Amino acid sequence: MNYISAPPALLPARAGVGFKPEHFDGIAAERQPLGFFEVHAENYMGAGGVPHAQLRFLRERYALSLHGVGLSIGSPEPLDRDHLSRLRRLCALYQPESFSEHLAWSSHGGVYFNDLLPLPYTEETLAGVAAHVDETQTALGGRILIENPATYVRFSQSDIPETEFLAELARRTGCGLLLDLNNVFVSARNHGESALGYLASFPLRSVGEIHLAGFFDASEEAAAPLLIDSHGATVADEVVSLFEWTIEQTGPLPTLIEWDNDVPDWPVLLAEAMKAQDRLRHAERGYARRLDRRAL
């Protein structure tokens, strides 16, 4: 099997974790065997203080990914220019190896929602999202990554499959994609579809980062299949299997462990990242063997 050729990622093709301030002392105690840390950009748009002191410490020692949750890039309304300006200043200050955002919207009419909301997949929506991605990339001076969403409902007017929507978005704008495999599994289960089938049609050549996380099974309460992208548990075996399949196709990619709720002690989160790192090493060895066979 040949690797799918993807654009070079600026983040190292190793495991990383989302930074939580309660873990800072454990992280600072010794050099960590991680490729990078990721933070939510909106948590660092204020001036100075302990958050920035901790982020400077990380930036000086590790690769850094900024992950946005508030740009509302899927909204039909114009981007919030003040928010974009704050984001530009933050990126200029810390020079992250990567910036990513969600294929979602979270504001309307000046009201901001504490959620990432879905959008209809139509040509009109695609044109609007592409314009917002272009504007963001121009403002930041580089390529951004767009993350596939976890979804619980669909719009009847959608006439473009999600994977085709993302592929065309990447083609039009030159953006990369952040492949969240927990989102893939959650959405597939919620809609009664195949997660592997989704991945088989995903534009893997555009993937610059992978996210892994845990979910909450709310099927009993809902009296129907319902998984919630909770980021509050270890990575499920089903998601691990999707990860192994993906990196067999692509080779090692920067891979983040997200754990935002019921946050465990630092050694637990680090151990979860090391499991992902072991799988990345295995994928790398497989790639090397295939290269050797082709060279014969």
UniProtKB/TrEMBL annotation:
Gene3D superfamilies the UniProt entry points to = Divalent-metal-dependent TIM barrel enzymes (3.20.20.150)
Q: What's the domain of life for this entry?
A: Bacteria
**Protein name per its UniProtKB record:** UPF0276 protein Msil_0303
**Cross-referenced Pfam families, in alphabetical order?**
MbnB_TglH_ChrH
Q: Tell me which InterPro entries the record gives.
A: MbnB/TglH/ChrH
UniProt family annotation: Belongs to the UPF0276 family.
NCBIfam families noted in UniProt: PRK05409.1
